[in-house]
Amino acid sequence: QKTFIGDQVLEITPRNEEQVKNLRQLETEAHLQLDFWRPLRTAGEKVHVRIPFSRLQAVKIFLESHDIPYSIMIEDVQVLLDKENEEMLFHRRKER
Amino acid sequence: SSGFDFGTYHTLEEIFQEMDNLAEQYPDLVSKLQIGYSFEKRPINVLKFSTGGNKPAIWLDAGIHAREWVSHATALWTANQIASDYGKDPSITALLDTMDIFLLPVTNPDGYVFSHTENRMWRKTRSTISGSLCVGVDPNRNWDAGFGGPGSSDNPCSDSYHGPSANSEVEVKSIVDFVKSHGEIKAFITLHSYSQLLMYPYGYKCTVSKDFNELNEVAQIAAEAVTSLYGTTYEVGPICSIIYQASGGSIDWTYDYGIKYSFAFELRDTGHYGFLLPVNQILPTAEETWQGLKKIMEHVRDNPY
Fold it and tell me: Under an 8 A CB cutoff, do B273 and A4 touch?
């Protein structure tokens, strides 16, 4: 099973069209393997992006250097997945 | 009576088993039919709710995007609700005395299994494309509605890859064939997650549909009903203006095909979990969605065309 250890989901809110343009540029960089959970639309609207652990530093530096505001929405995707698995197992035992 | 827990996520086998259980538990109302096979030869199973005869029908589907697990879970809860409400809830009873309901809880079974066993973040089908190492097509970019246009990708490695041709995905074609052969589908509602939206056509173009006013009014009423239970707020509008331009989507095809009441739900994520909505939010999500679904279905029932 693919793991998502250390992957984060960032909530990014571009302030203006220039920042939207910067994010569009980021979106086209295939090597970053960004997974846009909530798509990029216009300035002022939130974008949710899952970023692999290995690309986190590069993306954060990009955002900070362009002064694009962001916050961490999910600290570690794998932690949530492990919890999801545990909950499924718990409920399965309960059903039996 | 099967002891099935609607408040958790389940594997495909467990979902199929529960569909059989529902058909067994309500033999005069519920039956299971297979409308095709997925790319990896899994059955595409639909629940039919019918009080007999061939009536005009409402179509509901969920999980065309594999990782949106709360939509599958909501669909299954909804199936149980429809069955148990018939004969008790006057609104559902009147609906099923007038119309049939078809419900497809797992539209993309290969993707769903893959999301359980290999990659929880999988969205697409699992079809292979000659000449590409990448697998899968976004089945909600594969319908014959502005196919290949803006908001879909021609890169097989993209999560929004539209596929080699419209209806190339057997999961899509099976539904298209079913809708065409049935001939009396009057509403088509698809469940996605997660950004609390209730949308109607169009997505492949940014012009309003000829039924904009009516669809908007119904959607507003439905969204208010959703909010009434737990305060979850929904945004309402055409796909193009409230998400982005997206070509090849299911409800655009159904609408252009003549199914006026075509809607897409993006279910809740009030807690910022995205596609990883905790299991304790499944039941509230299903319950509130049901309020909205009922409003749409009642409108369809009361406004034949």
Answer: no
Which phi and psi (to 5°) does residue B27 adopt?
-65, -25
Do B276 and A77 lie within an 8 Å CB cutoff? yes
B288 CA to chain A: closest CA distance, Å? 22
Contacts of B272 in chain A (CB under 8 A): 11, 73-74
User: Closest partner residue to B8 among A38, A39, A87, by Cβ?
Assistant: A87
Mean pLDDT of B13-41: 97
pLDDT of residue A96: 61
What ipTM is given for this predicted complex? 0.93
In this model, does residue B280 exceed pLDDT 70? yes
Catalytic sites of B, residue numbers: 266
Residue A9 has pLDDT above 60, yes or no: yes
Q: A88 CA to chain B: closest CA distance, Å?
A: 6
Residue A94 reports pLDDT greater than 80: no
Mean pLDDT of A44-53: 96
pLDDT above 80: residue B1:
no
- Are the Cβ atoms of B278 and A84 closer than 8 angstroms? yes
Q: Which of B5, B194, B276 sits opposite A95 (nearest CB)?
A: B5
pLDDT tens, A13-46?
Answer: 999 999 999 999 999 888 999 999 998 889 999 9
